[in-house]
User: What shape does this take?
Amino acid sequence: MIARTLTQRGILVAAVNYRLAPQYPWPAQIDDVKCAVRYLRASAQQYGIDPSEIGAWGGSAGGHLVSMLGTAGPTAGFDTGQYLQRSSSLQAVVDMFGPADLTAGGWGPQATSVVQQVFGLTPGQDNSALAHASPVTYIQPNDPPFVIFHGTADTVVPPSQSQELATRLQAAGVPVTLVMVQNAGHGFAPIGGPISPTLQEITRTTADFFTQHLKR
Assistant: This one.
């Protein structure tokens, strides 16, 4: 729905794949998506892309990765592989219910199992490797603007993850909007009633945000 709405507004959309754990543990995932952004910039003329205006959105693990793209710059050490003459930076980020601070507590059994598979560690520890994989670690005032969506009834990724990310971005002076989706579980599945805002409203907010920041 989001991709179709964006293309209708004249914004080119690219779907990015990345290697998966446990076969490929962290940091293969962030290495891959950073390489994808660099590839798009290197191929800008071929695809009709404005290399100065690239944004990203993703949900859950994808939300974590787009937040890492938005915050973790070259000094974080994740820019490896091809197209290194290009930047992997973003100009706008939409994070949907993604992990933001793997050192914080409150994780349920499902998320704990996934984090252990990907990172080889249990979340909620004061651990340097978990901090190194957390978007909140890298926040700087020059980060791109964010919109963050999270369901109030999410039992997989704690809502406190997005609340912390928004608080830290705001404290650094980064433009950020946090939308807590009422009655929504992980993936915006309705729990106890219709979700608010609706999926259509979430799509419109996302499209309006990218239109504002990527079509200047």
Residues 199-214 form the longest helix (16 residues). The first strand starts at residue 55 and ends at 59. The beta strands are 55-59, 92-96, 146-151, 176-181. The chain is about 40% helix and 10% strand.
